[in-house]
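We treat protein structure as text, and this decision shapes the records that our systems exchange. Below, we set out a record of this kind in full and without editing:

***
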Amino acid sequence: MPIVKNAMCSNVLDIWETTAVSNDQSLIIPDGCCDLIFKFREGQAPVWFLSDLSDTSQIVPVFKGDYFTGYRLRPGTRVQAAQLLKSVRGHLPGGKVLDLIDHYTTHHLRTEDALKCLASGVVTVSHAASDLGVSSRTLQRFIVNETGKSPVFWHRLARVRRAGRDIINAGSLAEFAFDYGFSDQAHMTREFRQWFDLSPRTFAKISRHQEIFQTGYG
């Protein structure tokens, strides 16, 4: 199970580490964050890499003894990817890495405010734009420029992650879907399959393993 530490860098949301105890597969669900990850496997050179923003879950094979440390960046953080990866090459996880992340990343308050609004439970992106005091077109241009993803991406991701965290407590899926902002149960099922590659009921069983909901967007 991942161990989450307190972050000491303004652009880092969390720091996590984990060691695989057996050959297995790990379910990685979309979280709206880019992670700088250090991986070490016995007999191989350690590597650093950056995770991508994804709109679907991934199954990642791990092998017994694989060690990972991840620096989870705040949603909407802009990364000078090539420069950051070059700078951490040869370093082990530690304080120096936080300094390098701070140097090669930027996170703007306006971006944070906009993403928080999109994740606040607003009915549509247009409502979010209105709450922010801008036009939908302006919000679209700003979010795409800052994050590389559209406001619709962030709005849908926040909604499905919010529903995914609580689906284990759902009674009637139709009522649950309505309460969480989906047009109907079929809409919610499509969204779960799109983002999690699982039906709501199947996801509810898996979500008992709370480590799949590490800190992230929404």
Summary: Residues 151-166 form the longest helix (16 residues). The radius of gyration is 18 Å. The beta strands are 3-5, 12-19, 24-28, 35-40, 47-50, 58-62, 67-73, 78-79, 105-106. The chain has a mean pLDDT of 92.
